[in-house]
Amino acid sequence: MTETTQSLFETRPPSTLAESAFVSLYGWVYEHSPWVAHQLYERGIAKNLDDPAALADAMAAIVNGAVDDDKLSLLRAHPDLAGKLALADLTESSQSEQKGAGLDQCTQGELARFTELNDLYKQKFGFPFIFAVKGFHRTDILEAFERRVKNDPETEFNEAIAQVHRIAKLRLEAL
């Protein structure tokens, strides 16, 4: 296998990295929240975490063990889906993920509905709607948005955290 076809996990296993390198390589997995990678590193990175699924589970455990205020900050670090700024000012990962779902190709009506739902959702829950878009079309996402905006706050907080975990796992698998 050549260097170009090897995964990051093969060329630079997490267990071999210094903290600065680990946070540099994995701190972005949870949107604008490098504290997840920092805390995991402080707990120890063993060889069993040299696997994307195991690393995803360990990072999820850090988030799940965090206080609700930290979880809320993590949720608030996420961008609106197809929101007012559409794909402007997103991280490279978020932009790629949203484009892959066709959110950059919304009709005027779809964009208006996404904007309306984004505003309603943030007013109701205090954080943006989060959906792991990979594998879904924008119409699927809009349908989920319509359903989830009706959830109670506790249910939606838990669903948003679950979606954040799915995004992180998908990002790690892509490496």
UniProtKB/TrEMBL annotation:
Catalytic activity: 5-hydroxy-2-oxo-4-ureido-2,5-dihydro-1H-imidazole-5-carboxylate + H(+) = (S)-allantoin + CO2
EC number: 4.1.1.97
A Pfam family annotated for this UniProt entry: OHCU_decarbox
GO BP terms in the entry: allantoin metabolic process; purine nucleobase metabolic process; urate catabolic process
Keyword Lyase: yes
Gene Ontology MF annotations: 2-oxo-4-hydroxy-4-carboxy-5-ureidoimidazoline decarboxylase activity
Pathway per the UniProt entry: Purine metabolism; urate degradation; (S)-allantoin from urate: step 3/3
NCBIfam families noted in UniProt: UHCUDC (TIGR03164)
Protein name: 2-oxo-4-hydroxy-4-carboxy-5-ureidoimidazoline decarboxylase
Species this chain originates from: Thalassospira tepidiphila MCCC 1A03514
